[in-house]
Specification:
The structure is a single chain. By secondary structure, the protein is of the alpha+beta class. The protein has 3 helices and 4 strands, in the order ααββββα. The chain has a 4-stranded antiparallel beta sheet, with no helix packed on it. β2 and β3 form a beta hairpin. α1 runs antiparallel to α2.
Length: about 130
């Protein structure tokens, strides 16, 4: 909901710029100002507000699981979202970090990880006897 409200405010500011330009006779300058407002709103949302809205205010964020992988979990670590997927073809658990603007994406790969089997390959001392 907050995401829609944010974009409604940005679009209202763009419309206000265009309306003001028509009323004052400087439509060319109004179009440039409206484009600057729209670009600034998009950059601010993508690089700063998106994850804040989702984490703190119930915003909307869409993430697609890569083909062939299975989603296991997601968690927030400070302001960044970590997604855990399992790739059955390579037997790897893959953690992806989604930071603000997706500029600094971390990736952690755990080899020989198979959480979907439900069995552990580690034996306890009682099982060895």
């Amino acid at each position: 909901m907050i995401t829609y409200l944010y974009w409604a405010v940005i679009l209202a500011l763009v419309a206000l710029c265009l309306y003001g330009g028509i009323r004052l006779g400087g439509f060319g300058k109004a179009v440039i100002l409206a484009a600057i407002v729209l670009l600034t709103g998009w950059v601010a949302y993508y690089f700063h507000y998106q994850q804040i809205f989702v984490k703190r205010l119930g915003g909307i964020m869409h993430i697609t699981v890569p083909a062939g992988q299975r989603h296991l979990g997601a968690t927030w670590k400070e302001e960044n979202l970590w997604i855990e997927n399992f790739d059955p073809q390579t037997n790897e658990c893959i953690f992806f970090e989604y930071s603000k603007g997706n500029l600094l994406q971390g990736r952690v790969v755990i080899d020989n990880c198979n959480p979907l089997l439900g069995e552990s390959s580690v034996t306890t001392p009682a099982q060895d006897q």
